[in-house]
């Protein structure tokens, strides 16, 4: 009888043990308010690290340390997989160091993550423009404009693509739209931004004259005169058209424009357009 009592006693001792462990675990578990505080602390730390990385990457971009900038943006993209902006910025860092194919992969990933990401479509266009595939570049630039028509930089890129395709009328229209949105768009040059612009052109004389017409169309006589002088300096062979082209009529009376006109002989047998006509 005494031997039968031992298993019963062992059973009695062992049964409460899990309950005791559970009670201890419950006592050690932090309260919901403590858990909330811990989560908030982790979120704040992640946000601080993210901001620090963004600042570091922008600094690298501004100082042309594109490899280092790309490494930081790749880290941010990995840590924030639902944010397409880091994919786009990584692509820009690749593009700035001359890796067009690498850049294109990142921009393409950004558009797949966010199909309405206009910056990434614009930047895809910039990679093709750099490879002188102007028609394909134009397609991507136009896609960006369709998604976000209020960005002046997209319109300037459309203008450059048209100009490189020798479609100067369309180029001028695009430039004029951009200038009406932002009169200083052609003076901006931001390496840390999210929109790429390739401003290389083959015929600089014709381009300067086209820009002069574009500025004249917005009534900006000062910049019109600047680009007319550039066209003259580049030896643009049809510079005398400024005397008869109605596009310049609204700015011909400006002293700055007049000073450039004094250097440009009027074409023989053609009457000059009266100022303001």
Can you describe this structure?
By secondary structure, this protein is mostly helical. It is 67% helix and 0% strand. The chain contains 13 helices and no strands. α7 (118-130) runs antiparallel to α8 (134-147) and α12 (221-233) packs parallel to α13 (255-261). It is elongated and about 95 Å long. 34% of the residues are buried.
Core attributes:
single chain; 277 residues; 13 helices; disordered N terminus; elongated; mainly alpha
What can be said about this structure in brief?
The chain has about 280 residues and is mostly helical.
- Separation of termini? 126 Å
- One letter per element, helices H and strands E, the order comes to HHHHHHHHHHHHH
Q: Poorly predicted ranges (pLDDT <50, ≥5 residues)?
A: 1-26
Strand runs, count: 0
What fraction strand? under 5%
**Proportion in helices:** 55-70%
Give the overall silhouette: elongated
Helix and strand composition category: mainly alpha
- Total helix count? 13
- Characterize the largest beta sheet: strand count, sense, and whether it forms a barrel: none
